[in-house]
Amino acid sequence: MITTPLLSILRARAKQKYRTLPYPKGNPPPLSDRFLGKPLITSTSCPMDCFLCVTSCPVGAIQKEEALHLDMGGCLFCGACVEACPKGTICFSKDFQLATRDRESLVIRQNKTNVPSPLWTDVSRKFRRSFKLRQVSAGGCNACEADCNVLSTIAWDMGRFGVQFVASPRHADGILVTGPVTENMKVALEKTYKAVPSPKVVIAVGSCAISGGPYKDHPEQKNGVSSLLPVDLFIPGCPPHPLTILEGLLRFLDQI
Amino acid sequence: MRNGESIALKAIPNSEFPRFKTVLKDAVSTGNRILGLWAVPSDSEYAIYCAILYPTTQRVEVWRSTVDKTYPSLTPEIPCLHWFERDLAERFGMIPDGHPWLKPVRFYQGEAGKGDFFRVNGEDVHEVAVGPVHAGVIEPGHFRFQCHGEKVFHLEIALGYQHRGVERALTGGPNERSIHYAETLAGDTTIGHAIAYSLLIESLSGRKPSLHSEWIRAISLELERLANHIGDIGALSGDIGFLPTQSYCGRIRGDVLNLTALICGNRFGRNLVRPGGVRYNLEKERLDTLRRRLREIENDTVSAVEIFFETPSVRARLEGTGIVPTHIAIELGLVGVAARASGIPIDARKDLPWGYFLNQCPSVGIYPTGDCYGRAYVRWLEIQESFRFLHRITETISEEIPGNETAPTYNAGIRTESFLSPESLGIGVTEGWRGEIFHVAATDQAGRFAWYRVFDPSFHNWFGLAYAMRGGEISDFPLCNKSFNLSYCGHDL
């Protein structure tokens, strides 16, 4: 058998097949049955003096004032609240469409159904067919970065929507920030933002970039991007599933 | 101590400093290695601790001494301690007298990238500065090259941009957040760090996980190794410009992450490992799905990676690039893939086994060259071995468990109650995909963490990357960097 590299490469090519996901024209890829998507508050019947879910949350994302509400922007999607609640008031759905345009919409309230709303703005629509992003990693744990990277692989192939990560802020239409913004990254983030030509957008990916995540209120960081820059798109998760990031970007660009 | 054991703080004898130094020096010179060196300040003195791993007996010894603020540096005689001593100096203002290059490692005050850089002067010598914001989607770090044309005389790596105060925040725990800190020490090593943290908690609480949860932990740890190694070979391939393997491996890595998600819902293994056990069960049906998909992934991986190592231009690019010779790797105290690629057969799964690895340990793949080829090839050996290991362990489990085995869940109370033995020192060591992970902590009178220290493999290895670049070409850097693929956040903490 001839084993020149070229033939092996061609054989491997045939074996590996065409693997780009059909989404968004076709179905999204199947998610694990244990996947924790959008949190839901299902009933209004929890006793007023019960705070089990509130105290179980590692980052204080659940508040109970007059009514119960859960901040997806802080949520680590760990499910501790579900375990703590004896009544099953909080549950996590399989809904992966989590992105929002404003911070307030990340807060899940009782009895409120959140249908994914359009996310585009006049500015974001300008980038509808070509959207170049400079990614800035500003603290955090590298999981959000990894799931952004995944979007450039052949399975997700973000390039087919005209979306691409670029090497220089000068070539970018906006920045995609991950991490809580550490003291040590503050200047670099500001400089990168300034280097992007206007009009420009800022996207916060992951609970760190939105609220500080597990590092919330540490003096070594800034509790997220909003403390420094105006954020145009919030994509929550710890880390968000690649599908959540892609869906958010496409909705932001008015492509779905 | 064995892995996952604790010891009363009082039981650690205080040695005179010269004796402390001799013990360390002898240990290192006889093929043992240093897991970590750290200090605890008290009044005007400092208690300095060192944990030494003795692979032949599979034991850890913790040595302790007391020093003043200024003390004679250990680095000139034990070079692998250089980074640790810089860390001591930065944290506590200690002065290791005679340290060759004393400079902060993390820059706690938001001053990262400042300070003196080693500088080469002369005609045509120039400096190249890269980062903290890089061209790719990666973490922040700053690299300063001293170059003559294409040739690199010296590379200095400045880190600290990812410092977010995790060790400080762990003090006073454990509490609701502690496990999340462990899981995000390095996001790509969620399982590795979460197991190390759990071993430590279990060592101090005496609650051991069931055999069934040890199985699940071992499976998830090897899946994490597979995903990252496959991703790394793809990334190396991309830096060489060999696109087939890059494309295939990028996708296959995702398939492996989805197997982890099959077990716990999260691709990185978040919320799976908890002190005392695991949070999700691996039932018969799920196990069968996992086995079936693992076979498919293995087939795809073999086809994707074989063409990589078969192609002469790929080999030519890797061979001889970024060499770290064996004796240098030992001197610098490299661990994990980087050490094994320099011919050093170390692996915490065999040297300090825990859990399932006490029964069965994957064989350790080494390669003698210390170059990028070695680091790529060791990854390939480990990928194959992890597949074999996973096939074996999943076969064993499916024979041994009835279909309705209940979940070996952790006790929810374990996070919040004060239950750890007071005034004790506990350790947890695992072999993450990058290398050995060491967690060590001591409790106060109330059984809370008085201090908590984490040593990610990257802490040992960053200087290895700087060394590998010496005398190389600046265009070798992406390849060398990827061949080490170290963690910034795991280092900066």
How would you briefly describe this protein structure?
The complex is a heterodimer of chains A (256) and B (493). Chain A has 256 residues and is of the alpha/beta class. Helix content of chain A is 23%, strand content 15%.
Structure description:
Chain A is α/β, with parallel strands linked by helices and 256 residues long. Chain A has a domain at 122-252: 3-Layer(aba) Sandwich (Rossmann fold), CATH 3.40.50. Chain A is 23% helix and 15% strand. Chain A is built from 8 helices and 10 strands. In chain A, the strands form 3 sheets. A 5-stranded parallel beta sheet of chain A has the order 7-6-8-9-10, with helices on both faces. In chain A, helix 7 links the parallel strand 9 and strand 10 (233-235). Chain A is globular and about 70 Å long. The relative contact order of chain A is 0.17. Chain B folds into 2 domains: 6-97, Beta Polymerase, domain 2, CATH 3.30.460.80; 166-455, Cytochrome-c3 Hydrogenase, chain B (Orthogonal Bundle). Chain B has helices spanning 17-29, 82-92, 166-170, 178-183, 190-205, 211-240, 243-264, 284-310, 312-318, 326-332, 336-341, 348-351, 372-400, 457-468, 477-484, 488-492; strands spanning 6-8, 14-15, 33-42, 45-54, 59-67, 70-72, 95-97, 125-130, 142-148, 151-158, 273-274, 277-278, 424-431, 436-443, 449-455. In chain B, the strands form 5 sheets. A 4-stranded antiparallel beta sheet of chain B has the order 1-13-14-15. Chain B has a 4-stranded mixed beta sheet with strand order 2-5-4-3, covered by helices on one side. In chain B, strands 8-9-10 form a 3-stranded antiparallel beta sheet. In chain B, helix 6 runs antiparallel to helix 13 (372-400) and helix 8 packs antiparallel against helix 13 (372-400). The radius of gyration of chain B is 22 Å and the shape is globular.
